[in-house]
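quick one, two chains, predict together pls
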Amino acid sequence: MSQSYNRGLIEDFSRWREFEAGMWAWIFHKFTGWVLIGYLFTHIAVLSTAIPAADGATMMFQGSETDVFTGTIVSLEGLLLVRILEVGLLAVAVFHMLNGTRLLLVDLGVGLEAQDKSFYASLILTGAITVASVPTFIAGAF
Amino acid sequence: MSTQTPTQTEESSETDAEADVPSKGDERRDEKRRRAAEERARRQAEEAEKAAADEETVELKVFRYDPEVEGKQEPRFDTFHVPFTKGMTVLDALMYSRDTYDSSLTFRHSCRQAVCGSDAMFVNGGQKLACKTQIAELEQPIRVEPLPHAEVRKDLVVDMEHFYDQMEAVEPYFQTNEYPDGELEEQRQTRENREKIKMSTRCIWCSACMSSCNIAAGDNEYLGPAAINKAYRFAMDEREGEDIKQKRLEIIEQEHGVWRCQTQFSCTEVCPKDIPLTEHIQELKREAVKNNLKFW
């Protein structure tokens, strides 16, 4: 009985150069999905400062007494890193939405021959919306 | 040229042992063997010369592995230079390499016209049917490997057993409880129904789709695109009747059936017969949902 040779999992990851549109769409959809879940936790953490704020909790912000909620948000928005990450968050959310619509169409069996084109379209649209959002998010940050 | 060490040492030691009492037949066979070796050497030299001197040659890098021969157990790539002829396919080039340079080069092939499904390989990073892949359309050097996500038996030959198991799991044959009245009556199919299943009947069991599927790679129980396509071919065939269709849907809607598909479209991209596999899987998903949804 001859042995056989198992090349292992490594080949899946080393072949990304040969991936087709559908595969990239799947990878990006997974990635953006995880990023959004991660964001959800920070989002809840920041928003939940509203609970102590409602009970009258205050903090020192730029020399004056502010309630915790406003103080947290304004100080976060003051960070350049947060401003830049917000652009990224928008890009991630927009791609996830557009590709989600594409997947919905795929599930309904609509336009499966054009699935690669709709992936490229959602990429381009994501890029355009992200670029258009830059002035809004970055204004006054530098 | 092959990087392999020729196995002539074995042959010569054999003839030495027999040299004590050389019969006429042995002598004749020795002579024949010697002449064949000479002929082979001459041809190899000729081909190498031709490759060096003239027209177009194709550079092939072929995956080699043989667990039964010591010294070949470490996988490696051999380079072959093959003279290009118009219309040459990857399979033609492989056959040329085997016939001219290294007769131990192993790969499956049979009909050479994209019908038997024996020669699915990994060519330049994609699952291709070697006999219908034109060399002229490929970038050189052409890298030929056995199908990914299958265990390699030798060189380009992979173990297909798991693939065949999955195919058989969906009962890929016509079944029905509804027979026509007369004993000699035909079981007719409407033209529309035939059109519907037309593409799905084209499967040649080459396993290219199964090899390309990322989900099938990670989940050995997943039926895989080819098997689901087979299930589609019969589930959508109206002649089978409702009760058989019900049975088929039960097979495909299991945990490792259609719901494992995440619409990466890899199978549809690589299918050498252009079967819209993802479309068929999606349609079966909808059938499965419709089958289980009840409004009452």
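The first strand of chain B starts at residue 57 and ends at 64.
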